[in-house]
Specification:
The chain has helices at about 5-20, 30-60, 65-95, 100-110. By secondary structure, the chain is an all-alpha fold. It contains 4 helices and no strands. It starts with 5 loop residues before the first helix and ends in an 11-residue tail after the last helix.
């Protein structure tokens, strides 16, 4: 079974977060800013993944260990760049949350579990 694209995965995360957090009308603008960055990052990661897959396919047999490490370094750098873009709108969004929404968000980020209105706890 093929892994979902970054775009597909991100859309599922957005939907789950929105359902778990019950975003209010007052929070909609910061939520939209956050999801825009999430979508852009996902689209960029899919493009990078496609590029690297082509490069790897073309040179798999000739690529040495150093070249493999450089390939992985590009992925890590892209993730780091995306986090730098993500954090400011995430901070703005997080500061707009109610105490209950923050608790839910903290639980989701700690456990990766989503619920309807509340994060499931272990």
């Amino acid at each position: 079974m093929a892994r979902p694209s970054a775009v597909e995965y991100t859309e599922a995360q957005i939907k789950q977060l929105q359902g778990a957090l019950n975003i209010t009308e007052a929070q909609q603008e910061v939520w939209d800013n956050l999801t825009q960055v999430m979508r852009e990052n996902a689209k960029d990661m899919d493009a990078l993944t496609d590029t690297l897959a082509k490069e790897r396919a073309e040179s798999t047999k000739t690529m040495n260990a150093v070249e493999h490490m450089k390939l992985h370094s590009r992925i890590t750098a892209a993730h780091s760049d995306q986090l730098e873009k993500f954090i400011p709108p995430f901070e703005a969004f997080y500061s707009s949350l109610s105490d209950e929404q923050r608790k839910t968000t903290d639980t989701i980020f700690q456990t990766g579990r989503y619920g309807h209105g509340k994060a499931k706890r272990k």
